[in-house]
Amino acid sequence: MASMMDRIKQFAQSPQGRRAAEQVRRAAADPKRRDQAQKLLDKLRGKRH
């Protein structure tokens, strides 16, 4: 049975994994999306603003 890391590596090298990675890169480059992600992370970490 493949370990979790092996399965992640296989996914990352697959066409579907490459598409997912590209979508994440595009979303991370968008300032609005980056702000949304930061707010979510702060909320999950329990930070208050």
UniProtKB/TrEMBL annotation:
Region Disordered, residue ranges: 1-49
Compositional bias annotation for Basic and acidic residues: 19-49
Domain of life of the organism encoding this protein: Bacteria
Protein name listed in UniProt: Uncharacterized protein
Naturally occurring in which organism (per UniProt): Streptomyces thermocarboxydovorans
